[in-house]
Every structure is written in structure tokens, then in C-alpha cells.
Amino acid sequence: MSSTTETEDLAGGRATLHRTTDMTPVETAAERLRLAQDNLTPCAPVRDLLAPLDLKAAYDVQALNNQAQVNLGLRTAGWKVGLTSLAVQQQLGVDQPDFGRLFADHESFDDLPTPSSTLLQPRVEAEVAFALDADLHLGPVRAVDVIRATAFVVPAIEIVASRIAKWDITIVDTIADNAFSGSYVVGSRPTLLTSVDLREVAMEMHGPGGVVSSGSGAACLGHPVNAVVWLANKMIELGSPLRAGDLVLSGALGPMVDVKPGATYEAKITGLGSVRARFAEVEG
Prior knowledge:
The chain is of the alpha+beta class. It has helices at about 25-40, 55-70, 85-90, 145-150, 170-175, 225-235; strands spanning about 5-10, 15-20, 75-80, 100-105, 105-110, 115, 125-130, 150-160, 180-185, 200-205, 210-215, 245-250, 255-260, 265-270, 275-280. The protein has one domain (about 25-280): Fumarylacetoacetate hydrolase, domain 2, CATH 3.90.850.10.
């Protein structure tokens, strides 16, 4: 980053002002993604601006744009865990999941129309959502801590969206783009975590033409609770622990599916019920 230094006389005193003339790579990457969303036009990957596998810089990009959303008045609702499939981790050359922020403004309820006009290249995936009613601020967090802190779980459909053209991504792009968080739909039947074995649940997602995705709880880091444990410990490490009231999308139970305009997608998860996302036809 380059800058110029100027001196001004303020109320009889001297003050030194630093005026930045060039943005840092992190700021440039954040702006590229932000403009893509604002203009509803996918952009080039941001990995050309950041060092390969510089996950900290990628999270810094994410944080800048998330704070911009908060500054616009959006309310944080919780977090999402991504890259919970070992196959996808290997594909992107990483050995851990990633995370992104959820906003209440992007939440839809079961079977209500899902706004899609601002979603870039949307895809859907079925997940288990954890509603927390206790803080997870003391580490190391264990599975029993997550179980104790969970008020209930519901089926959910996450609508992931990529600001990066043609989903041409690496792990740096994924994290910088808020783990591709777009919007999400939550189901209507809360279930106590102690009444279902999430590792054994089976998922089928129905869409145009029949079953479009299938999987199980074991596909999510072996057990969806494992994903929440990872996130809880990661957030403690970063100084922003999970809090009561947070919603956590724990990760996909099966492959992502491209959204077709006008289609309805229904994810059925044994023991949890179902959740539906309805999309409007192409607008305009």
C-alpha cells in the first residue's frame, strides 16, 4: 500500500493526515466482490490478488464485506460451515472446513417464495440447522457441549451464490466470498437434538424431474455435530465465540444442485421432516 502524508492546521494545532492513494490487495479483492454483487455481474476470481492458501487474507476480505453489510443495516443471524465434504477439501487442497456469516435479512421460511433476483449463479444444498440457546465461549468445545447448547435442529436448504464467474474457485476465493453464502430456508418442525441420530439421517432433495441430490448425515464431517464443534472452536480462536440465538448451518448432506428459475426444491431428511425452497421465474 502506498500513501501520502499531509499536515494541516486544526484549531491552532498541527495534525498529520495519512491519505491512502492505493488500496491493499485485501481491499481490492473486497471491492471486486462487492461490485459484482452490486452490479449483479459475476467477476473474475480474487486469488490473483492474494497469496496462494493465504486463508487469513481471505477471511479479512470476507470480514470487510460483511461489515459493509452490517453498516447498511443487515442483522447477523449466525454462521454457516462449508467444505464439510472430505472429497471437496481434497479437491481444493485444504484440510479443514471454512465458514461464512449468515444474515437474518436473507432468511426465508419453509415454502415461502425465495427471493432470487439478487442471487448470482445460485445452487441449493440440504443441511441441518442448529439453533443455539447457550453460548459456546469456553474451549475446547466438545460434542457434548454442542449437544447441551442446542435448543433444536431443523432441516434447511442453503442457497449458495457465487460472485465469481463460472464458479472458477480455489479455497481463497471461497472464503473471501463469504463461503458463497447467498440465502437460506429453514424448516418448520423443530426437533430436539437428543431425539435423532444425525449421523444416520438420510437426505433426498426433490426438484424438477425427481431426486436431484441425496446423501446422509455422515457426509458432513462424519456427523453434523462435528461441524459445529469445529466452528465453535474456530470462533473462540478468532475471539468471536458462538452465542445463544445463533443459527448454524452445519454443512451439506449431499451435492449442490443448480437452481432452475421457477422450480421448487424439497429436501426430506429422515427424523427431521422436510423443507421447501420455491423460486420465481426469471424477472424482468
